[in-house]
Amino acid sequence: QVQLVESGGGLVQAGGSLRLSCAASGNMFRINTMGWYRQAPGEQRDLVATISSGGRKIYSDSVKGRFTISRDNGKNTVYLQMNSLKPEDTAVYYCSADEVDDDDDVLADYWGQGTQVTVSS
After folding, report:
1. pLDDT averages per 10-residue partition of the chain, 121 residues
2. CB of 80 closer than 8 Å to CB of 36
3. Are the beta carbons of 32 and 110 closer than 8 angstroms?
4. Measured between alpha carbons, how far is 79 from 63 in angstroms, rounded to an integer?
5. I need a labelling partner for 19 at 20 to 30 A (CA). Which of 9, 11, 29, 117 fits?
6. SS (H, E, C) the chain
7. CA triple 115-8-46, angle to 5 deg
8. How far is 84 from 9, CA to CA, in rounded Å?
9. At a CB cut-off of 8 Å and minimum separation 6, what does 70 contact?
10. Residue 30 confidence (pLDDT)
11. How far apart (Å, rounded) are the C-alpha atoms in residues 82 and 109?
12. Is 37 exposed, middle or buried (CB count within 10 Å of its CB: 0-12, 13-18, 19+)?
């Protein structure tokens, strides 16, 4: 079983910055893609950014140029640096991770408990 523990959320004024962290721990085969999703009240959960173990990154259009995803493979940790935050970035942010086998077939998807990010205007 893999656990994802997130940290770094909080309250910030518009234009400010926050850095989220998510560490995967437990018995795992290998973690490939890690990422961040967010869900605002009454909305569906949407992709923010993902990063593969090889460093390939994908961003949603709404955060390109403002957010940067990175990871430390040795620590199974993913980070999200969020700059120039806007009130519309307010949401619960969830970390995700895919456990894969030697053929890169997904064995399981894991989610963190979520961390609140609130951006005031």
Report:
1. 92 98 89 96 96 96 98 94 98 95 90 97 94
2. yes
3. no
4. 15
5. 29
6. CEEEEEECCEEEECCCCEEEEEEEEECCCCEEEEEEEEECCCCCCEEEEEECCCCCEEECCCCCCCEEEEEEHHHCEEEEEECCCCHHHCEEEEEEEEEECCCCCEEEEEECCCEEEEEEC
7. 40
8. 15
9. 51, 78, 79, 81
10. 87
11. 24
12. buried
Residue with tokens 């923010």, as numbered in its chain: 48
Q: Which of 1, 21, 20, 2 is nearest to 97 (CA)?
A: 2
